[in-house]
Amino acid sequence: MRKSIATVSLSGPLSEKLTAIATAGFDGVEIFENDLLSSPLSPEEVRLRCADLGLSIDLYQPFRDFEAVPADVLARNLRRAERKFAVMERLGADLLLVCSSVAPESADDDDLAAGQLRLLADRAELHGIRIAYEALAWGRHVRTYDHAWRIVEQADHPALGTCLDSFHILSRGSDPKGIADIPGEKIFFLQLADAPLMAMDILQWSRHHRCFPGQGGFDVAALVTAVVQAGYRGPLSLEVFNDVFRQADASSTAVDALRSLLLLEESAGLSAPPAPAVPSGFAFAELTAADTEPLRAVLGALGFARAGRHMSKPVELWEQGEARILLNTGVSGRRPGPALAAIGVETPDPDRAARRAEGMLAPVVPRRRAPRDAPLDAVAAPDGTELFFCRTARPDHSSWTGDFTAVPSLALPGGPGEPAAIIRRIDHIALTQPWHQFDEAALFHRGVLGLEVDDSLDLADPYGLVRSRAVASPGGGVRIVLNIAPAPGGEETRLQHIALATDDIVGAARRIRERGLGLLPIPANYYDDVAARYEPAPQDLAALAELGILYDRDENGEFFHCYTATIGRLFFELVQRTGGYRGYGAQNAAVRLAAQHAHQQGV
User: Fold this and answer.
1) Beta carbons within 8 Å of 170's beta carbon, 6+ residues apart
2) If you average pLDDT over every residue of the chain, what do you get?
């Protein structure tokens, strides 16, 4: 289906919005009146600009407070409408959105509303224009789509139809099944938006908290299915009022918007892109730094051994169990280090994963590849983290590990007879997102990797709240935690961390400490609370307190975790899961964040 978006959904002046919309790949646009009023471009110039960009003007909106009014107000409204029709003719737009009235002088009289809308449609038809009547969720008398349709049906005019809006329908809890009663040819337009489920005034909810489909709590796919089954053949069009989107870069927001429609089409069964090749685990995490000595020391203390050096790039491979860390000193043009720059995920079909990613508008990362390097496709996540699609050590596929030549392992601190590995694998990776890309990041990882998205959480930090949301593969082999930190600032304020899984966190923490790596100290008050809530054995509580190990449990199992100090923007976490525990110790986040702040300040 054709795809459109309202200009109000993006930031910037109208000319920049149109460019961003076209560049993202949309077919059409809704011109929001305020964008035209504030533009130096004439309607004719906007029309030419859209034509040059390959965009159709699918809708002009909104026309407010028209129907069910006294005769003198109706006369003024018709004069106002004639002026808007003239503007639309200059724009080349032939569909006008009319919202149900919120005016105090409007009457609760469907007969009057239908008669006046028929009169408006008569006038519009003379200009080659049609009217799409929409029920605002906060309309004075008309608040539901079925009520709006009854009025349109009563007016019985070929130039009058209805506009269905997913927010106005779903925010009121209306059942989309009734859409089947509306003839498809009378559904003139479909506007789409999602929203987080919130208990607040509907108008404020609509004006500030809409988001793109798949980023909120509405079942937008079911509504779209109902509309298409009714016979609608117009565009899928986004109309999103969102404070963050109106401050963010219009180009990236437009791409996020189109990706949401691609996923919506897939969810509604309207398209069949390549299915996601859901990853089963992490192949590697790549760290960049101009000076890797501090990272080498930490990795050595954690039990990693240097296993190889890349044949053509300044990259070292460090391994322990199934956990692999790459150290890259080629930081030119990349993030200041030490930082987590790339993630490799194990996928059953790297080629399909790459096709899926490109189909979901993920930007392909250009790579300098030597003749003998294994083919390795990568795309960039919204925060710039590179995602590589890997199949490690498979006989039917070139493994990226073949690009590394063996080197003598660096000697590790510790005594003879130590277990060879205390770390089994990478449990999860946490990435702090730019403030304006949090929802985009969750949708990206769902769409590109096929990960499941958890509910958003607000975690207490000494200086505000950290918003957090996890995305994970169904079996938990890949878990990524997306955060927004409360502190303003650039990339240097965005912490990242790698969580490493162990089967014996007490033994692992002791060995790490013996190797000279300090773990984040946790206040004694925390362990008093653990004793009160969980009543562990005294010797177990003493071990946790000695090593700074945090504890959580739920009905499925237990979770133990501890942390290293932060190096640059990066730190490591050791975790042990028992039973079926699937969380991340969220209830301990406030304690950990406070301990990190205190440690950084030398308290």
Assistant:
1) 176, 195, 218, 219, 220, 223
2) 92
Q: Which residue has the tokens 């996890």?
A: 470
Dihedrals phi, psi of 241, to nearest 5 degrees: -100, 115
Query: Which of 178, 186, 191, 193 shows the shortest CA–CA distance to 162?
Result: 186
| DSSP element (H, E) containing 325 | strand 323-328
For 355, half-sphere exposure in the C-beta direction (CA atoms, 13 angstrom radius) is 9
- DSSP 8-state class, residue 366: P
Q: How far is CA 57 from CA 48, 50, 128, 278, in A?
A: 11, 7, 14, 38
CA distance linking residue 474 with residue 404, whole number of Å: 31
* 211 φ, ψ (degrees, to nearest 5): -150, 180
pLDDT of residue 275: 93
DSSP per-residue string spanning 193-211 = -B-----S-HHHHHHHH-B
pLDDT tens sequence across 576-593: 999 999 999 999 999 999
User: Is pLDDT of 416 > 50?
Assistant: no
- Cα–Cα dist 179/243, whole Å: 30
Q: What distance in Å separates the CA atoms of residue 402 and residue 577, rounded to the nearest whole number?
A: 32
Which residues on adjacent β-strands are paired with residue 201? none
Q: Determine how many CB atoms are found less than 10 A away from the CB of residue 419.
A: 11
Are 434 and 467 in contact by the 8 Å Cβ rule? The answer is: no
- Sequence-distant (≥ 6) Cβ neighbours of residue 550 within 8 angstroms: 522, 526, 544, 560, 561, 562, 585, 588, 591, 592
Query: Locate tokens 């180009």: which residue?
Result: 251
Model-wide pTM > 0.85: yes
Q: At residue 149, does pLDDT exceed 90?
A: yes
In total, the chain counts a number of residues equal to 603
State whether residue 579 is helix, strand or coil: strand
- Distance, CA of 418 to CA of 432 (rounded, Å): 35
Q: How far apart are CA 534 and CA 41, in angstroms?
A: 67
pLDDT, residue 493, reads 58
Amino acid at 142: V
State the amino acid at position 174 in one-letter form.
S
- Which of the residue ranges 47-51, 335-339, 473-477 would you say has the lowest mean pLDDT? 335-339
Task: Return the closest-CA partner of residue 285 out of 240, 315, 252.
Answer: 315
What single-letter DSSP state applies at residue 365? P
3-state secondary structure of 80: helix
Question: CA 383 → CA 437, 445, 472, distances in Å?
Answer: 7, 12, 18
Residues 6+ apart with CB under 8 A from 44: 90
Which residue type is seen at 47? Answer: R
Burial of 566 (0-12, 13-18, 19+ CB in 10 A): middle
Averaged pLDDT for residues 253-273 = 96
Of the candidates 339, 175, 213, 353, which has an alpha carbon nearest to the alpha carbon of residue 278? 353
The count of other CB atoms within 10 Å of the CB of residue 139 is 20
Among 161, 158, 157, residue whose Cα is nearest residue 148? 161
Q: Which residue has the tokens 């009160």?
A: 532
Task: Return the residue matching tokens 């007490």.
Answer: 506
| Beta carbons of 99 and 132 less than 8 angstroms apart | no
Q: How far is CA 86 from CA 60, 97, 281, 601, in A?
A: 12, 15, 59, 65
- Contact in structure between 448 and 362 (CB atoms under 8 Å): yes
